[in-house]
Amino acid sequence: MADKYTTLEQHASYGIGLQMGQQLADNPFDGLDIEAVAAGVKAAFTEQEPEVTDEQIRAAFGVISERMQAEQAEKAQLLAGAGEEFLAENAKRAEVTVTESGLQYEVLAAGAADGEKPTAESTVRTHYHGTLIDGTVFDSSYQRGEPAEFPVSGVIAGWTEALQLMTPGTKLRLYVPHELAYGERGAGNAIAPFSTLVFDVELIAII
């Protein structure tokens, strides 16, 4: 089959369309009509009279926005509930310690009992592996093969608290409630709002 798009200009134009389509696919709404999208793009570019009025568009945007917000709120409630249930069951295990803030941890490896502990002003070198409660990995210095360095006060609250309990050589598994993690905001596409997180954290050194 002959190439339908043969010129550099056509290739670039098609690429613009691909990028727009990918952006729409990343943030779709139920009922999105890609043919109507293409018609709207063409009408705007060629300065044609729109087939849908501004009033209709504003009304549709309002309804779709409210619908998406309601769906997001429902998903957030489900995630928050699942996290709370997970933490409640996890707290029953004898090897799990629950702190006053609600952070949960268990010791996977113990460093020297008389070793130095970081303070909130310290900078540390760590290895870590982070997952959602369903086991989905969202970040891992182990997988990258390179430890991470950061200030103790520059990370989520659950980490800041846990690091100050550790001496070099200690490895903890943290179970972090959403209010000690990324809360109602979440973090990018990987961590939804109200997500409870699980981290294996190894303190290599205080820098």
Explain what the structure shows.
- With 207 residues, this protein is of the alpha+beta class.
- It has a domain at 75-206: Roll (Chitinase A, domain 3).
- The chain is built from five helices and seven strands, in the order H-H-H-E-E-E-E-H-E-H-E-E.
- The chain has helices at 8-26, 34-45, 54-90, 141-144, 157-163; strands at residues 97-98, 104-109, 123-132, 137-140, 148-151, 171-176, 197-206.
- Strands 1, 2, 3, 4, 5, 6 and 7 form a seven-stranded antiparallel beta sheet that branches.
- The chain is elongated.
- It starts with 7 loop residues before the first helix and ends with a strand.
- One of its GO terms (molecular function) is peptidyl-prolyl cis-trans isomerase activity.
- It catalyses: [protein]-peptidylproline (omega=180) = [protein]-peptidylproline (omega=0).
- Pfam families: FKBP_C, FKBP_N.
- Its EC number is 5.2.1.8.
- One of its GO terms (biological process) is protein folding.
As an assembly, this protein is single chain
What's the CATH C level of one domain? Alpha Beta
What's the tally of helices? 5
Number of strands: 7
The major pleated sheet works out as: 7 strands, antiparallel
At CATH's second level, what is the architecture of one domain? Answer: Roll
Strand proportion, as a percent range, falls in 15-25%
Order of helices and strands: HHHEEEEHEHEE
Could you say what the CATH topology of one domain is called?
Chitinase A, domain 3
The backbone outline, from C-alpha atoms, is elongated
Q: Which bin fits the share of residues in helices? A: 25-40%
Terminal Cα span: 62 Å
